[in-house]
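User: As part of a screening pipeline, I want to sanity-check one entry by hand. Below is the sequence and the SMILES for coenzyme A. Please return the complex as structure tokens so I can compare it with the automated output.
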Amino acid sequence: MCPLCTFGPVYFTTLITTGRVILRQWKDGDLAPFAAMNADAAVREFFPGLLTKDESDASARGAQSKIVQRGFGLFAAELRDTGEFIGFIGLDRMDFVIPGVPQPAVEIGWRLARAHWGKGLATEGARAVVQFGFGTLHLEEIVAITVPANIRSRRVMEKIGMMHVPELDFDHPRIPAGHPLRRHVLYVLKNPVRCA
Ligand SMILES: CC(C)(COP(=O)(O)OP(=O)(O)OC[C@H]1O[C@@H](n2cnc3c(N)ncnc32)[C@H](O)[C@@H]1OP(=O)(O)O)[C@@H](O)C(=O)NCCC(=O)NCCS
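Assistant: Here is the complex for your manual check:
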């Protein structure tokens, strides 16, 4: 059976390790806790809706196959101490164009289960992902997007050194006109080595 269609083989067991977090390829056991997160209205506050189990599984499989194909993606995150799956932190190629943003754009993103918020875990993982993106992938820049009201996510962007570029704020093409979550802010972080 095609390995990309299953959660059997795990191609990269550990990609990035921080003091408290391991960022790695997705595995079978992540699906149930990931679906629980995606069914939590607090976690999905700034997204258009909750995800069903099938939608959540498809999104995990999509992330898994991108990691296989590209060597990077939205990595599953687990606690080093306990091995507990807590969500994802990673990089993704943007699959739509934002006017004014150089292509192909690579986005940093994060989503954690509510029980793990407010402990600095997203920031810790994101810092390591930035190092990986610049040091290993040699990206020129990393962008991040969210809705203006998502202060928690914006704080993570700011704490890892990203700059809000208001002139690049945009209406998300996948969200219908008039929807309250359509407007997005855009943050950028440039690779200091590539830009020197
Ligand atoms: C965004 C998210 C990943 C942050 O994870 P986290 O591990 O709690 O983040 P951190 O602890 O590293 O940092 C959160 C920051 O937001 C701040 N914060 C939290 N709630 C806040 C609030 N209501 N108002 C202002 N700041 C707030 C925290 O104080 C912290 O900043 P500080 O260190 O300067 O005090 C998490 O909240 C989440 O998964 N949210 C749902 C999914 C989501 O929105 N993903 C992002 C989509 S763009």
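Points to compare against the pipeline: The longest strand covers residues 85-93. The pocket of coenzyme A is lined by residues 43, 46, 110-112, 117-123, 146, 150-153, 155-156, 159 (CB under 6 Å).
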